[in-house]
Amino acid sequence: MPTALITGATAGIGAEFARQLAHDGYDLVLVARDAARLESFAEGLRTEHGRVVEVLPADLAEEAGCSTVADRLAEGVDLLVNNAGIGLNTSFVKVDYADERRMLRLNVEAVLRLTHAALPHMVAQGSGGVINVSSVAGFGVLSPGSTYSSSKAWVTNFSQSIALSVRKRGVHVMSLCPGFTHTEFHDRAGISKKGQPSWSWLSAEQVVRDGLRDFRRGKLVSIPSVKYKVSVFLLRHLPSTLMYRLAGDTRGKSRDAGT
């Protein structure tokens, strides 16, 4: 049976990937920090779907945790879902550097390292894939002073670049870029959901369903839902001065004049 390793697997998009992939016949390796919660979720999947579910407690923002998961990937899996990630609700000039470093180690370095660990086995067998969960935030300056959008811009660009280097070897890499999604992400980051209209929110089920569909179609970038496809089109084509104003920087015009 094919095996999928999923990071950040106990909640939100990661948990939904686990459910849908188990339903599709995958055995699973689930990675998260909370060992008790991880085992409880895994047992539910074993009971409901009859799949083999391995648990791998690890903190991917730490060297030891990342090494543990990289070693497991080197043994071989058919699909890697790099879903684990965090955001911060503090401006760059006020945030603690340790928090910034932790976010970038999880959002960027872990994605780099785990993808690098997984690909040699996939290339050798001529099949397999990687889904890196990014965000529409990576397509524009949506949060002035935030390195979250920068980290997701890296994930999207990295995924496309690696995809082009391995697709002739039978391996597919895709960046999944959802918009606002009902998960624990905002609560953990201390970000209020009240400012966003109800129509702007997606369900984790829809994000994963659309993402897996696009992955099977061979897309390099998946943007779930038409409304966010339109949003990304605008972010890519709006004049930078207008984007700065929409992001809340009224000085965008003068700042852009010298570029």
Automatic annotation (TrEMBL):
- InterPro entries on file: NAD(P)-bd_dom_sf (IPR036291), SDR_fam (IPR002347)
- Gene3D superfamilies, per the entry: NAD(P)-binding Rossmann-like Domain
UniProt keywords (A-Z) are: Oxidoreductase
Name a single GO cellular component: membrane
Q: Which domain of life is it from?
A: Bacteria
Q: Does the keyword Oxidoreductase apply?
A: yes
Q: Does the keyword Oxidoreductase apply?
A: yes
GO MF annotation list: oxidoreductase activity
Give the record's family classification: Belongs to the short-chain dehydrogenases/reductases (SDR) family.
Q: What is this protein called?
A: Short-subunit dehydrogenase
**Originating organism:** Longispora fulva
